[in-house]
Write a structure and sequence with these properties.
Protein name: Integrase catalytic domain-containing protein
InterPro entries: Integrase_cat-core (IPR001584), Integrase_H2C2 (IPR041588), RNaseH-like_sf (IPR012337), RNaseH_sf (IPR036397)
CATH architecture of the largest domain: 2-Layer Sandwich
Organism: Taxus chinensis (Chinese yew)
Mean pLDDT: 81
Number of helices: 10
Shape: elongated
Radius of gyration: 24 Å
GO molecular function, one term: nucleic acid binding
Low-confidence stretches: 115-125, 225-230
CATH class of the largest domain: Alpha Beta
Number of domains: 2
Helix content: 40-55%
Strand content: 15-25%
Structural class: alpha/beta
Amino acid sequence: DTWYHQFHDYLTTSVLPPNLTSNGKRVFLKSVSRYVIMGGLLYKRGFDGILLRCLTGAEVTYTIQQVHDGICGGHFSGLAVAKRILRLGYYWPTLNNDCYEYVKHCVMCQQHANLQHTPSHPLQVTRDLCPFSQWGLNLIGEIHPPSSQRHRLIITATEYYTKWVEAIPLISTKKEKIVKFINHHILCRFGVPHRLITDNGKYFKNKLLQDLCDNFGIKLSFSSPYYPQANGQVESSNKTLTKILMKVVNDSGSNWPDHIPFALWAYRTSIHTSTNATPFSL
């Protein structure tokens, strides 16, 4: 915490820390020039001009804990946690390293972290998209234990351009429930898309869904029956969403549907490496 007190004291008294060499004074003055005092608190000027409140001591630990494993945390990586803290308006010099160390020692992250694999084929970039023009649909489940209301599945819709995700729990794969989800959570919220892409599950191959697409002029596409991972963005979203849910549900697990909104919030407000932005901002 020495850095905080040195910067704060200099900005309030204009007195340099003792025992600085000539070079040390130049380095100190260059560093402190990006800081200001407001309301008795130390702030750093971000590169975008936004003031970041400087934290120290117990505030640092509390902030990392809340952002990483709080109710809307999602147990993301150290880098993602650090970026989110900056977006929330906080800063300290060892931010990145502290977040990395915290995540490295998180028991739940070690239990549920994905294994890293090198893709066997080059990743294909989806081109010629505009926001909300193309959605991928998939089902997560069966989930054990079922919820207290007998939900055992989650249907997800991933928007390809923004990476926005919609999801709700389902008791069954009835076609009426799937079409209702598309109507309420895609068409009525984001407009009519150009295309819907699904896996080859029989629950997506029905006349009711096809009629919906025909009525609105939506192209309905299916990924390869021998390689459902071709719908890659949806598969990736499902892995992330499932990982978040696994980490935030309590020991009984029966109330997991109550955590879906918080899992979606965590996902939508996290920066995606493919866009370098959050789905919410796009």
